[in-house]
Design goal:
This protein has one domain. The protein is built from three helices and no strands. The longest helix has 47 residues.
Length: 154
Amino acid sequence: MVHLNTLHVREVSEADDKYSAMVSAPFPLNIMHFFTSPILINKRKQSTNLVILHIYYFPIALMSFAVFACYSLVIIPFCYVKIVGHKFALMVVSPQGQGARSTLDRAGHAFLFLAIGPLLLTLNYLVDLYWFLAHLYKMDLEKTNTKGDPDTKE
């Protein structure tokens, strides 16, 4: 009966720093509520809630990361072919305007990318993996204003 006051109804959009893990787990992981709910109710600490939220989120983050990594790896050859074709097409169609290079410069860029393009695309792939993983666990995001007034921050 003592812990029932803890489970009182909250506003729909109100975040709870101590107990939000009790409602945050997706379907297969919500079975873990049988084990984690008593811990959350008895500890009443924000750090405990955060640890349990990370436990619930880890499988989702892992699957998202795996899908992103596989898809990015699969499209690297297609990107290489597209960019090489584009570089050689730029030799034929000479762009006009400020910063336009000669045909020989564009040919040099095309052959340079032909030689080191796979290395550049692989390095970009690794950088993308790092930033994707970093953004999966980014927690210091600004709150989104849902009221419609662009000058008001919540």
